[in-house]
Specification:
5 helices, globular
Length: 145
């Protein structure tokens, strides 16, 4: 009979941070709104909010949740995470759009993906950094153990 022993790193689960779900939700929704509110005079952020918020919520929510669970708190990390997530979401969106658009409109699907990639490369890092800043605000002591 063979006996298997786990190393200490495998036996104990990773130390994970407790996430305040209310602060997470408020920061997740508040970050794009705050950036848009502060930069509305440029007009483009208003359209970026309308076009990018669904993808931000769809892709950004699980990515940011996981990063917080792993203990990341730096604004620069979340800005970089937003940039990377936007790039992956834009690349994943192309075949999906091309499939739904049909063969003749592949150029239109590519154009839409490039538009999302270009504007998302500006706003996704901003939204990620503001998310980290808002999430780092005051919380009840139960979440800071």
């Amino acid at each position: 009979m063979t006996t298997f022993a786990l190393s200490p790193a495998q036996a104990a689960p990773d130390a994970r941070d407790i996430i305040d779900p209310v602060a997470f939700t408020l920061a997740l929704i508040g970050a794009p709104c705050l950036v848009t509110l502060l930069t509305f005079w440029a007009v483009i952020p208003i359209f970026a909010l309308g076009m990018g918020a669904p993808l931000y919520l769809l892709f950004g929510t699980p990515v940011m949740w996981r990063a917080l669970r792993r203990g990341h708190r730096r604004k620069a990390y979340f800005a970089w995470l937003g940039f990377k997530t936007n790039a992956v979401a834009s690349i994943v969106a192309f075949p999906i759009l091309a499939l739904f658009e049909g063969q003749p409109d592949i150029a239109d699907a590519l154009g839409i993906c490039i538009l999302f990639l270009a504007f998302g490369s500006i706003f996704a890092p901003l939204w990620g950094a503001v998310f980290a800043w808002l999430y780092a605000g005051p919380k009840p002591s139960i979440y800071t153990q």
